[in-house]
Design brief:
Radius of gyration: 18 Å
CATH class: Mainly Alpha
Largest sheet: 3 strands, antiparallel
Order of helices and strands: HHEHHEEHH
Number of domains: 1
Number of helices: 6
Length: 142
């Protein structure tokens, strides 16, 4: 028996929707042998060229153990490389390898497919309002 979504409190509804979005994205990323965290790391490094592990963790709101585990696996799989920062030898900079860069198109493809699915049937104005509301919710939580 399925619940009528109109009867679920807002917070519960947000949880259900996010769970469905993440589940669908997970299955799409698996086609490219990636998980959601790895895709986020690839995309962030693509946008910023290189950054420290600490800055990457803060940017993606990941815990140090989680980012370390993901970075190790991605480095082992050849998606990213680590090198010492030229101005501060204590800092390791992360950057995409050629393999990582070539994978970005897959990450963008999944993002676009998810966007089309999520916003199907919505007008550009409704999408803009939705984004504004998400930003407001985020600001309220900070």
């Amino acid at each position: 028996m399925q619940c009528d979504l109109r009867d679920i409190p807002d917070l519960g509804l947000m949880g259900i929707v996010m769970h469905r979005v993440m589940k669908r994205a997970k299955s799409k990323y698996e086609e490219f042998d990636l998980n959601r965290s790895q895709a986020s790391i690839l995309f962030t490094l693509h946008q910023r060229s290189s950054m420290s592990q600490k800055d990457l963790a803060v940017s993606l709101n990941m815990t140090p153990p989680s980012i370390t585990s993901a970075i190790r696996k991605m480095e082992k799989d050849g998606y990213i490389s680590r090198k010492q920062d030229e101005s501060d030898q204590r800092v390791m900079r992360l950057a995409l390898t050629e393999k990582g860069e070539s994978c970005i198109q897959n990450v963008k493809k999944v993002a676009e497919e998810m966007r089309e699915l999520i916003f199907r049937g919505m007008s550009p104005e409704e999408i803009m309002l939705f984004r504004r509301l998400l930003i407001q919710i985020n600001d309220n939580l900070e």
